[in-house]
């Protein structure tokens, strides 16, 4: 006979002619062979298999799990004073049955065999608790020599814990532990502690639901797996100065109004005395006087861009103002990337001209940027907006020689061709980049009206003990954004805390019909 201890249960393979009930008996008690472990929810898929060759008949598992987890339970109280009592059958929970009986040790073997024959179901794993515990070793040889343990699915246990059947008491037990001295610990820790003292079916599911709905936990704790929403492909403009991105950049206590053309990547920076609306408008007007009015202007929601004076200026020049959602710098990422490149040029210039003020180096940094071939357009920003290409430059635009000759003959026609080439290549590049990034991101989530959401709190960057998230209610679900009851402005879905998913966060305890966990069994 071979004993295999797999991940989920122990199985015993015996000779085919061995009956379920054996008439043989022996006074030899088995030697206890135990391996220690804790009660686990997770099963090790690479569990070691053990095989017994020395005494293959004397095999019965002893579990560290409590009696309560078994759907069929037998409690045997052995005494030397009183007579046998009639078995008492109770149902602690739906689908669970418990048999309690007192047996005199004088007729122990006969009573145990009769009890197991009557109440043990070979189809359901049965837990047996012997009280007092020292008498368990008197019951072991009786069970081993009479029954095939694997066929009868019998397991000896050492303890039982308190059953809690009332739902309100279950919730109160979870609440007292979760909100008590443990200070809002997580699902696994709460379950591991409570399961040592209490039992009810699907305890871990109830604990997970309770903690996932705890507002304190949702506001205070980190999101271990933040939402990484898929990017949307935004079609590029078709010619220069259709769309301009604008922002304010601070360098060495000075402020600059920075602008970049979304098509050509041409950029400029204007020093500001302050960030008031008149100074912002003055610098923007200087840009417009050289390059014309754009169709659309993209900015963040800083007060320098959201005041009435600035709005009237844009209305006068028929410029559409696109405001990005708060705390989502990636929506204005083009100007942010320009800032990064501009600062890199300034650092290089500073190493060469150590004593030169930064304000004097800004024009040289801008000139270097606009004279460099951009990685996306494969063109110099200067060349795209002026239409003048230097044929002596070895790093040309990879345009055909024929196209360059036509350009000299028909400037307008050639520039339109160039714009189309840049537009098509930019769109293809954007599509490829977006698809590559989206391969590791998730589809956009829809939120229902009145649904509770938790919004990332930007104050945590300055206040370490501020709540990580703020609770709010959804008013309207939109592409990329939502509107909530407490926020006047749209909220990007990327700022929301991930909703718990039962298939990922809720680890349902294993079916007790399959027996206790592999890591919590002893063998005798």
TrEMBL record:
Coiled-coil ranges from the UniProt annotation: none
Biased composition (Polar residues): 1-13, 501-524
Region (Disordered): 1-54, 489-524
GO molecular function: nucleic acid binding; RNA-directed DNA polymerase activity
Gene3D superfamilies from the UniProt entry: 1.10.340.70, Ribonuclease H-like superfamily/Ribonuclease H (3.30.420.10)
EC number in record: 2.7.7.49
InterPro entries: Integrase_cat-core, Integrase_H2C2, Retrovirus_Pol_polyprotein, RNaseH-like_sf, RNaseH_sf
SUPFAM superfamilies in UniProt: Ribonuclease H-like
Composition-biased stretches (Basic residues): 489-500
Xref: Pfam families: Integrase_H2C2 (PF17921), rve (PF00665)
PROSITE patterns documented for this protein: INTEGRASE
Name of the protein in its database record: RNA-directed DNA polymerase
């Amino acid at each position: 006979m071979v004993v295999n201890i797999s991940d989920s249960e122990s199985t015993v393979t015996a000779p085919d002619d061995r009956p379920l009930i054996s008439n043989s008996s022996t006074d030899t008690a088995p030697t206890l062979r135990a391996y220690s472990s804790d009660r686990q929810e997770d099963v090790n898929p690479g569990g070691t298999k053990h095989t017994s060759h020395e005494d293959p008949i004397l095999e019965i598992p002893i579990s560290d799990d409590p009696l309560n987890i078994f759907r069929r339970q037998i409690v045997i109280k052995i005494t030397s004073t009183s007579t046998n009592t009639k078995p008492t059958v109770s149902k602690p929970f739906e689908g669970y049955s418990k048999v309690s009986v007192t047996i005199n040790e004088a007729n122990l073997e006969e009573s145990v065999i009769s009890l197991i024959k009557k109440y043990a179901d070979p189809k359901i794993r049965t837990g047996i608790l012997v009280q007092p515990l020292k008498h368990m070793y008197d019951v072991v040889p009786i069970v081993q020599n009479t029954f095939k343990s694997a066929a009868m699915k019998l397991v000896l246990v050492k303890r039982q814990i308190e059953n809690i059947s009332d739902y309100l008491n279950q919730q109160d037990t979870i609440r007292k532990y979760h909100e008590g001295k443990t200070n809002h610990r997580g699902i696994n820790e709460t379950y591991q502690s409570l399961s040592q003292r209490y039992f009810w079916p699907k305890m871990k599911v109830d604990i997970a639901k309770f903690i996932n709905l705890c507002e304190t936990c949702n506001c205070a704790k980190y999101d271990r797996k933040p939402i990484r929403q898929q990017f949307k492909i935004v079609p590029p403009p078709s010619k220069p100065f259709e769309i301009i991105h604008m922002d304010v950049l601070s360098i060495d206590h000075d402020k600059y109004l920075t602008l970049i053309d979304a098509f050509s990547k041409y950029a400029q920076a204007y020093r500001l005395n302050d960030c008031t609306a008149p100074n912002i408008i003055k610098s923007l007007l200087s840009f417009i006087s050289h390059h014309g009015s754009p169709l659309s202007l993209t900015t963040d929601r800083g007060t320098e861009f959201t005041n009435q004076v600035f709005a009237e200026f844009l209305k006068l020049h028929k410029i559409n103002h696109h405001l990005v959602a708060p705390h989502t710098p990636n929506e204005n990422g083009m100007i942010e990337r320009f800032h990064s490149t501009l600062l890199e040029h300034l650092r290089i210039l500073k190493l060469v001209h150590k004593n030169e003020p930064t304000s004097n180096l800004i024009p040289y940094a801008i000139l270097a940027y606009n004279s460099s071939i951009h990685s996306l357009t494969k063109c110099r920003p200067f060349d795209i907006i002026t239409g003048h290409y230097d044929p002596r430059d070895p790093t040309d635009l990879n345009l055909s020689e024929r196209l360059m000759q036509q350009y000299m003959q028909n400037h307008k026609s050639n520039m339109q061709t160039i714009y189309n080439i840049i537009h098509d290549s930019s769109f293809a590049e954007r599509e490829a980049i977006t698809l590559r990034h989206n391969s590791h991101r998730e589809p956009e989530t829809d939120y229902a009206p009145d649904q509770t959401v938790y919004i990332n709190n930007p104050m945590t960057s300055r206040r370490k003990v501020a709540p990580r998230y703020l609770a709010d209610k959804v008013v309207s679900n939109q592409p990329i954004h939502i509107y909530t009851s407490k926020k006047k402005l749209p909220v990007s879905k990327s700022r929301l805390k991930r909703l718990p998913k039962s298939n990922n966060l809720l680890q349902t305890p294993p079916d007790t019909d399959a027996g206790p966990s592999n890591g919590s069994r002893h063998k005798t």
